Every structure is written in C-alpha cells, then in structure tokens.
C-alpha cells in the first residue's frame, strides 16, 4: 500500500475491525463510504488530475432505460424498461489515463484489492482486464445527469475526485431488487417520483465508496453550477481476464478494442435483465 495516497492511519486496510465495519454497512444498505480515504494533502492533486483528464472523455447523449437495454415490445406496456431517460454523463477510458496517475496506482495496488475482496466477502478480486472500462473517470458536466439505472457488475468501487458546485448528488434505493426478483412495482414507483426509499449521499473529493449497484437502483442527479462532477470508477472482478461486451463498450466509449469479443450475458451471476 502506498501510504502517501491512502490515509492508512485512519484506514489500516488490513485491520479486521475496519473490514467488519464496511461489511456491516454493505449488509445494511448495500453501500459504504469511507470519508477522506485519500490523504488531505493529495486531494488537490486528485482534483487536478481529474481536470486534466476530463477533456479526454467520450461524450454521447443517449436515451436509455434503467437496465440499459434495447426496447423489447414483448414486455408489458407498464414495464419500467419502457421508461426512457436521457443519459448525459461521459467517460475517460483507461487507456487515456496515464500509468502514473494517482487513480491508476490505487486501482492496481494489491493492498487495496485485498481490502476490496475482504469487504465484499470474496477470496480475491482482480483489476478488470478490460483495456477501456477497467478504470474510468466519469464526467458529468453542468446540466447533465446519470439517470436511474442498475449496474451490470455486482459491486462498484469509486472515488469522488471533484464535486459539483450544486446538484450532482448520488442517490440510491438499497436492495430494491434481488437476484431472484426484479421488484418491478417498486422500481416503477421511484421512476414515478416516489423517493420514500431513496437515500442521498454527501460525497466529498477523496471519499471512497463501495457499492452493490446491481441490486440497488441509483443515479447522479443533474449537475448545477459551473463545475463538472468527476468520479474515478475502479473496476474489479471475481476472476482474472474479464472484459466487457462490444455493445456496451461502444455505448460508453464510442469505440472497442480487440479484447471486446465477450458474448452478451457472459459471466452473469443471475437472470435479471442486466
């Protein structure tokens, strides 16, 4: 572990008590935030890194549903998959992030990987092998948002590097669906504006977030003011060599690499829509 980046005094990553605390949060809400995970003296460097990378993002406005799936006329008319929203966030791909960047060093750090595995109750995790989505910087510019959606991955590790001046809140509905049930009525209720089950996080630059986004509907609300919202997403998998599908990769980055030949649905852990 590089103690110049992570505040190891506050977060000794090999401490069983810290792992137990994170696991308890994940059991309770599917989410755990470690405020000030990055040392205070590095937060400005983290911001500057994100600002320098942001112009490399692929911007493409899409009309999507919560499952990021194509319209399926076989589904009932009231199915939430028919509810369309505009997705306006952008991504800087891994191959456009310098190898010596702080977020690259964190992503490949074995101590961080062991901590992530322990936190999610896994024997081991591996840095996602995908040459584009293995590590990304998510950019949401003012006036844009990342609308309600579910993740394809079971778990996500992210690090806020720059907060918006206003808006840009991370909001989620913990455990709104399970590996056995889509719970369509509850999903539709959120899309209709019922936010009774919605939780909102006050994230700050340098905060690490561990999140079970496959089963929790979530979004980044519209960004307001004159500053982008930047988040590094550190992608890991249960096994080595995992890459994304060509279809999804092209949606996010406008291009694919030779590695993107994985069949749709490969590696799924359940039979949910995504």
Q: In words, what does this structure look like?
A:
This protein is of the alpha+beta class. The chain has a single domain (16-66, 83-253), classed as q2cbj1_9rhob like domain (Jelly Rolls, Sandwich). The chain has 6 helices and 16 strands. It has helices at residues 16-29, 40-53, 102-108, 110-119, 184-191, 246-253, and strands spanning 31-34, 62-64, 85-87, 90-92, 126-127, 135-140, 146-149, 156-162, 166-167, 170-173, 199-201, 208-211, 217-220, 223-224, 229-234, 236-237. The strands form 5 sheets. A 6-stranded antiparallel β-sheet has the order 1-12-8-15-6-4. The protein has a 4-stranded antiparallel β-sheet with strand order 7-13-10-11, with no helix packed on it. It has a two-stranded antiparallel sheet with strand order 2-3. The longest helix is centred in the N-terminal third of the chain and has 14 residues, at 16-29. The two termini are 34 Å apart. The mean pLDDT is 92. Residues 130-240 form the Fe2OG dioxygenase domain. This is Fe2OG dioxygenase domain-containing protein. Belongs to the iron/ascorbate-dependent oxidoreductase family. InterPro entries: BesD/HalB-like, Oxoglu/Fe-dep_dioxygenase_dom. GO terms for molecular function: metal ion binding; oxidoreductase activity.
SSE layout and pairing:
Elements: H1 16-29, E1 31-34, H2 40-53, E2 62-64, E3 85-87, E4 90-92, H3 102-108, H4 110-119, E5 126-127, E6 135-140, E7 146-149, E8 156-162, E9 166-167, E10 170-173, H5 184-191, E11 199-201, E12 208-211, E13 217-220, E14 223-224, E15 229-234, E16 236-237, H6 246-253
Antiparallel strand pairs: 1-12, 2-3, 4-6, 5-16, 6-15, 7-13, 8-12, 8-15, 9-14, 10-11, 10-13
Family: Belongs to the iron/ascorbate-dependent oxidoreductase family.
Pfam families: HalD (PF23169)
Protein name: Fe2OG dioxygenase domain-containing protein
């Amino acid at each position: 572990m590089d103690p110049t980046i992570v505040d190891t005094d506050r977060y000794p990553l090999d401490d069983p008590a810290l792992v137990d605390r994170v696991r308890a949060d994940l059991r309770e809400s599917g989410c755990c935030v470690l405020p000030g995970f990055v040392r205070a003296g590095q937060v400005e460097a983290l911001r500057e890194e994100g600002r320098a990378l942001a112009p490399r993002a692929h911007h493409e406005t899409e009309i999507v549903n919560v499952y990021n799936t194509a319209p399926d006329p076989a589904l009932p008319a009231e199915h939430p998959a028919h509810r369309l929203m505009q997705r306006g966030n952008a991504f800087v791909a891994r191959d456009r992030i310098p190898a010596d960047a702080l977020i690259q060093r964190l992503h490949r750090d074995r101590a961080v990987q062991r901590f992530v595995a322990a936190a999610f109750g896994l024997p081991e995790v591996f840095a996602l092998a995908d040459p584009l989505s293995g590590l990304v910087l998510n950019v949401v510019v003012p006036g844009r948002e990342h609308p309600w959606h579910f993740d394809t991955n079971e778990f996500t590790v992210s690090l806020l590097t720059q907060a918006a001046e206003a808006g840009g809140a991370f909001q989620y509905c913990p455990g709104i669906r399970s590996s056995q049930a889509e719970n369509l009525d509850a999903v539709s209720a959120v899309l209709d504006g019922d936010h009774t089950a919605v939780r909102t996080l006050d994230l700050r630059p340098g905060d690490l977030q561990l999140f079970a986004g496959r089963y929790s509907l979530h979004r980044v609300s519209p960004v307001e003011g004159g500053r982008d919202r930047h988040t590094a997403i550190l992608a890991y998998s249960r096994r080595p060599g995992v890459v994304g599908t060509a279809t999804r990769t092209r949606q996010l980055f406008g291009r694919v690499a030779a590695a993107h030949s994985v069949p749709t649905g490969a590696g799924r852990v359940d039979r949910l829509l995504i």
